[in-house]
Amino acid sequence: MGGYGSSAVKTAIFGGTFNPVHNGHLHLAASVCAELEYGRVVFIPAHIPPHKEVAQLAAGPHRLEMLRLAISGQPAFSVDSCELDRGGVSYTIDTVREFGGDPGRLGVIIGDDLAADYWSWRQAPELAREADLILGLRHEDSAPLSFPHRGVRNVRLPVSSQLIRDRLCAGLSVEHLTPPAVLDYILSQGLYRAE
After folding, report:
1. Which CATH number covers residue 174?
2. pTM for the predicted model, two decimal places
3. List of residues 6+ apart from 115 with CB closer than 8 A
């Protein structure tokens, strides 16, 4: 990791559990590049998410590998393990500061489903000052974000990591919800099977 904030390439970070990564994540990242002219999106899997309990959280190395497989061949996308390496609860403000750079230069992608609780994030006002918040579309009835931000007009894809896990547990198909290489990895590693 390192050096993204000081690079000439306009960079946005996209944190989450990615448990597993799905096509909605990839479409949102591509929309940020296309609409807001970011040259790079860095996917950062959380070690421990601070705002949600996640059933069947795959181990960090599995989620990291699924991300690597998902973005293979897409030069604008990369993966960083800084939150997994740091351990503990993953806070976005810590990651923004680890990336460094000029205040407001780094973009931080969040889904509008998180907007209502953004005020509860660690050092939320400082985060809004130190990075450009980018709000992606996830749900029709999401609350507005009351901090300065930029919006992206991505298509709301009806897919979520929870949906994929639930369908896998039920023995149902998840083809076309996540990249084929990710699905192959999930099946080969026996992830998200019914207990």
Report:
1. 3.40.50.620
2. 0.92
3. 135, 142, 143, 144, 145
